């Protein structure tokens, strides 16, 4: 058996250019700068921040970001070759790139490499296309810029495909391939930094990619070839992997697979899938543990929720929901996982829902230090059927922990909401009056009545609770509510009586944020369930009883 050293491969992110071509996707300039800082800290080698001079966002980001923000990661601007009959020094894309070369030292130039696009889209001869590319590269290099060339439709040029993926004639395919090879020859002569083979419409196959890269790396051993993939056929990851295994030393994509149509290749999937199998070396093992955090930062920056089933970084990537699997997982941890989640900074997820059964409840309770027996697990399911079936405990381990402690009888009853109602009145001119009325018992015996007005039902209920509880538990003042999300459940089955799942995030200085959940056919009741759990969890934390074993005497506290 011989030792295998995986190839070192560069990562090029284009989330802020190609990624933003996804409809309705937006990011602010400050969030973009923070995301670039996170990429740099992770070990991304290049980041493209936009199409040169295309819009105000690119102009503002170009001015806002500095090499200090991004360290060793190189920043790039994207642009076109000079136009037909134009002078390179007067071409607007190139002017913008040269003007900002101190901040953004890399230029990515797109060159049409398929004869169909050269002749019909640009309306120029193959010879003029070669000259436009040559003069553009020469001009940028003379101005001290590192130049990467994106060969648009390169995979189609090599595979003989024309419009809609239809085969070109044999003669046209031969001429197109000749022109592609002339571009490669020219790029090699000009010492282009990276020659990027683009699967522009995502139509290639791994077999085609392997053939192209094996040929290029054999014929041009000194050149640095790269691959830029899309996911239109669902083969973006497979194609990128094929390119790397066949000699690509640089891959382009977007962190979380954003992009036009079906998206660019997802770099977090490529990195995790290949580095964890020893097929490529993108970043250090220490940096790799930040992969999940980086991906979630990207989702948040673009205002997206991580898809449950996103490979490697999704909330369900290392989850066990099926009861049979949960039972096996208890006996043989890791049996249903393809890798150790900690290597990418993730944790195994034990799902609790209608399909999971007692086994998952027992497994999750054990992992949280509140172990339930089979009988106790059944009792929890019976007492919290809506939460179990509605995925409330999958959405919030905090709410599950509290439910398990109630089942065990180890959770102190700091307060109970005995009854509540909300008066919500609107008038014809848009005015709204909302008041919550609540009866609570505090400390198991004191009965208190509280009322409060709010901007909406949830706000009013929260204020009514705080108005009374803050008197008894001053530590609640340290806690703040964050985001509030609602998901409709089983709408098709129940129509207007569908249940909703509410999740509420909480935060407090010096403590990790926490999330609680509630499930009910009534939105206000679901929200109240989540808020009550959020208050109870903070009181539990501040009491020092978070991990208290059964029977431990509960302490009094005031701050």
From TrEMBL:
Pathway linked to the protein: Amino-acid biosynthesis
| The keyword Acyltransferase appears for this protein | yes
Q: Which domain of life is it from?
A: Bacteria
Q: Which GO terms describe its biological process?
A: isoleucine biosynthetic process; L-leucine biosynthetic process
* Transferase found in the keyword field: yes
Membrane-crossing segments per the record: none
Q: Which stretches make up the Pyruvate carboxyltransferase domain?
A: 9-289
| Short name of any one Pfam family annotated for the protein | HMGL-like
Enzyme Commission code(s) on record:
2.3.3.-
Which keywords are on file for this protein? Acyltransferase, Amino-acid biosynthesis, Branched-chain amino acid biosynthesis, Isoleucine biosynthesis, Transferase
Its catalytic activity? Answer: pyruvate + acetyl-CoA + H2O = (3R)-citramalate + CoA + H(+)
Q: Which SMART domains match?
A: LeuA_dimer (SM00917)
GO MF terms listed in the record are: (R)-citramalate synthase activity; 2-isopropylmalate synthase activity
Q: Which family does it belong to?
A: Belongs to the alpha-IPM synthase/homocitrate synthase family.
Identify this protein by name: Putative Uncharacterized AIPM/Hcit synthase family transferase aq_356
> What organism is recorded for this protein?
Candidatus Sulfuritelmatomonas gaucii
Q: Species lineage, top-down?
A: Bacteria, Pseudomonadati, Acidobacteriota, Terriglobia, Terriglobales
């Amino acid at each position: 058996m011989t030792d295998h050293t995986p190839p070192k491969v560069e990562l090029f992110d284009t989330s802020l250019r190609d990624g933003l071509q996804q409809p309705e996707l937006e990011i602010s300039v400050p969030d973009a700068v923070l995301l670039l800082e996170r990429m740099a800290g992770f070990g991304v080698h290049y980041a493209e921040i936009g199409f040169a001079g295309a819009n105000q966002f690119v102009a503002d980001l170009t001015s806002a970001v500095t090499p200090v923000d991004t360290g060793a990661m190189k920043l790039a601007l994207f642009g076109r070759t000079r136009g037909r009959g134009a002078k390179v020094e007067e071409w607007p894309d190139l002017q913008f790139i040269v003007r900002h070369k101190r901040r953004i030292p890399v230029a990515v130039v797109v060159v049409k490499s398929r004869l169909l696009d050269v002749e019909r889209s640009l309306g120029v001869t193959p010879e003029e296309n070669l000259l436009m590319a040559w003069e553009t590269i020469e001009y940028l290099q003379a101005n001290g810029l590192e130049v990467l060339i994106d060969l648009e439709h390169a995979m189609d040029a090599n595979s003989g495909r024309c419009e809609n993926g239809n085969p070109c004639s044999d003669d046209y395919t031969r001429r197109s391939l000749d022109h592609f090879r002339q571009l490669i020859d020219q790029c090699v002569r000009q010492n282009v930094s990276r020659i990027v083979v683009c699967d522009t419409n995502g139509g290639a196959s791994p077999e085609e990619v392997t053939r192209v890269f094996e040929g290029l790396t054999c014929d041009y051993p000194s050149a640095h070839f790269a691959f830029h993939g899309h996911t239109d056929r669902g083969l973006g990851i497979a194609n990128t992997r094929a390119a790397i295994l066949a000699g690509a030393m640089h891959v382009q994509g977007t962190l979380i697979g954003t992009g036009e149509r079906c998206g660019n290749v997802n770099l977090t999937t490529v990195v995790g899938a290949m580095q964890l199998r020893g097929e490529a070396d993108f970043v250090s093992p220490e940096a790799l543990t930040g992969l999940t955090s980086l991906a979630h930062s990207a989702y948040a920056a673009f205002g997206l929720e991580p898809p449950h089933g996103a490979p490697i970084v999704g909330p369900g990537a290392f989850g066990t929901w099926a009861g049979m699997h949960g039972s096996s997982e208890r006996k043989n941890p890791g049996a249903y996982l393809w890798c150790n989640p900690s290597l990418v900074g993730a944790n195994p997820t034990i799902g609790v829902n209608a399909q999971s059964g007692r086994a998952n409840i027992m497994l999750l309770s054990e992992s949280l230090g509140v172990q339930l027996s089979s009988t106790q697990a059944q009792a929890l399911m019976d007492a919290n059927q809506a939460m179990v079936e509605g995925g409330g405990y999958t959405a919030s381990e905090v709410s599950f922990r509290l439910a398990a402690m109630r089942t065990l009888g180890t959770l102190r009853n700091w307060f109970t909401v005995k009854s509540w109602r909300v008066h919500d009145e609107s008038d014809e001119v848009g005015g709204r009056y909302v008041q919550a009325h609540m009866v609570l018992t505090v400390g198991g015996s004191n009965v208190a009545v509280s009322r409060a007005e709010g901007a909406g039902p949830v706000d009013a209920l929260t204020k009514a609770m705080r108005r009374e509880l803050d008197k008894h538990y001053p530590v609640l003042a340290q806690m703040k509510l964050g985001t509030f999300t609602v998901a409709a459940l089983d709408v098709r089955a129940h129509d207007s009586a569908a249940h909703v799942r509410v999740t509420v995030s909480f935060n407090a200085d010096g403590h990790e944020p926490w999330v609680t959940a509630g499930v009910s056919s009534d939105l206000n009741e679901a929200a109240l369930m989540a808020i009550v759990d959020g208050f109870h969890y903070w009181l539990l934390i501040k009491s020092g009883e978070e991990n208290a074993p059964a029977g431990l005497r509960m302490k009094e506290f005031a701050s």
